Amino acid sequence: MHHTLQLYLNKMINNNKIVEYIRRSVSLTDEEAETFSVAFKEVKIKKRQFIVQPNFVVKNRNYVLDGAFRAYVVDDNGQDSTIAFAIEDWWITDYNSYILQKPATMFVVALEDSIILEISYEKEQALKNENHKFETFFRIRAERTAAFMQQRIISNLTQSAEERYQDFISKYPQIVQRVPQYALASYLGMTTEFLSRIRNKKANKNS
Amino acid sequence: MHHTLQLYLNKMINNNKIVEYIRRSVSLTDEEAETFSVAFKEVKIKKRQFIVQPNFVVKNRNYVLDGAFRAYVVDDNGQDSTIAFAIEDWWITDYNSYILQKPATMFVVALEDSIILEISYEKEQALKNENHKFETFFRIRAERTAAFMQQRIISNLTQSAEERYQDFISKYPQIVQRVPQYALASYLGMTTEFLSRIRNKKANKNS
DNA sequence: CAAATTTCCTAAACTAGATCATTTTTAACC
DNA sequence: GGTTAAAAATGATCTAGTTTAGGAAATTTG
Question: Do the Cβ atoms of A100 and B147 come within 8 Å?
Fold first, then answer.
């Protein structure tokens, strides 16, 4: 098949993904769907490439079409803590930096070769201003994000390291397979050594 | 002054509070402000009274006019963890229950005699549907809530118990004064005994 | 204002999880 | 494909924070 045509078809398919996504929350006419999808730009990201770095104001909100990402902060002692993961059909950015348009405190890095759809802050603002439905969509997104984060806070406060791990593998088995152990450990608030122990204690029991 | 008139005037003043609040995020005509404020109902809550209890679907989002509240969960071992505090000009509810209209997992209790403005889920939906500006307001609320929660997650992952405490007193000195120590300890993810030790270690240093 | 209840303090024993140091395994890359 | 680097495992030691238990203050309520 002709190369340019292939690219064009890929783009159509990918934009359908984001249209499908928004239509799970709000119903759109075909025209509205088009307006929404053209606000996004498809970008290829290589493994280990950063899409967010501290001290820069984050310009984009990113929807993952393919691949995996990790958002993390590095504290004064050089230890890093994973704030979020994202795989296909998830969103990722430094949320605080993006919504308040202030300098980022996080890194966001690709864990695999990936493809994202990015929307700029300005385009998102324009979408929200021009159509009530888009405003509704982003409101629902923010609410779900808050609900998700609240669950994580509760988990941190009430569960032991092992319980948090068990909980995570039962909720997100696809993610566990794809992220390095040290990243998962620092997401769950424990050292990689301790997570290794939890895992091997289990493995020995099973054998 | 005539009693009913006094009540009426109080109501006007209190509704001005919520109008002032929303106007910090979106600009409203006087008519819109009126529509917004009449969606709320003023309710007096006695100290130790619950406004949210587990297993019931939460009907209201609550704005605190006066007083103080605490939201918490109780785990299988009977230990409770504080999820949120709210004083004047803050909002409180079981967010997961409210936005997804599913049974609550939290208690929300008054720490003092309080006055709240409550809005029902249905009225909030109606406001958001009828006017783009109200949708924007609730979108901004949700975003700020998510941003706040993200900060708390980062604090839990990166800081020691003492650092979390120091951070909290510098950010929310007004709250520290008004909530019992065990509630603050369980918010910060430590025991009340350990918080007591942190406090007294400091006190001794200062003397 | 006195009794009852709740909150807070102190201190010793204990443990979940961290840190440190070394080895083994896996993955990256010329 | 062989070398080098990064990630994971393992063991020994340590510590921040918990648990348990008691008593002292402070609040609530009759």
Answer: yes
Size of interface A-B (CB pairs under 8 A): 94
Domain holding B76: CATH number?
2.60.120.10
Q: What is the arithmetic mean of pLDDT over A127-147?
A: 98
pLDDT tens, B33-89?
A: 999 999 999 999 999 999 999 999 999 999 999 999 999 999 988 899 999 999 999
Number of domains in chain B: 1
Q: What is the pLDDT of residues B134-147, one digit of tens each?
A: 999 999 999 999 99
The HSE-up count of residue B141 (CA atoms within 13 Å, CB side) is 23
Alpha carbons B153 and A148: distance in angstroms, whole number: 11
Task: Considering only the beta carbons, identify the residue of A83, A95, A153 that sits closest to B83.
Answer: A153
Exposure b/e, B148-172, CB count within 10 A at least 16 = b: ebbebbbbbbbbebbebbeebeeee
> Does residue B14 sit within a domain?
yes
Read off the pTM. 0.92
Structure tokens at B7: 């009540």
Q: B69: domain range?
A: 3-158
Cβ atoms of residues A139 and B139 within 8 Å: yes
CA of A131 to nearest chain B CA: how many angstroms apart?
Answer: 8
User: Is residue B20 in a domain?
Assistant: yes
Supply the pLDDT for residue A4: 60
In a domain, A196, yes or no: no
Where are the strands (E) in B111-177, listed by range?
Answer: 114-120
C1' of C13 to CA of B105 (Å): 35
